[in-house]
Amino acid sequence: MKKMVFLLAAAATFVACGADKSGGIKIDEIDAENQAFADGERLAEALVNAETMAEFEAVRSEIEQYQDAYRSRFGGQAYINFLTTTTDNISESLGL
User: pTM for this structure?
Assistant: First the structure.
């Protein structure tokens, strides 16, 4: 019985520690501010060029994951760069 409790506790620890809420998004920690510009442009273009609702929803979800990753991992300038680049590119593409 003690072995079972230990195994369950170990499994729960591994799952909790290994959970990556950012969906496996890889951001270069040294160049996060510049990567934020590139990610924002790429995702904004993908969102504007989405041809189906499912494609649009998938890109929107990815944008939210990147937004959360930049906010929670870096904050500051990298987060601002991502937000402004994404919104500016979407606005320009839509003529707003």
Answer: 0.69
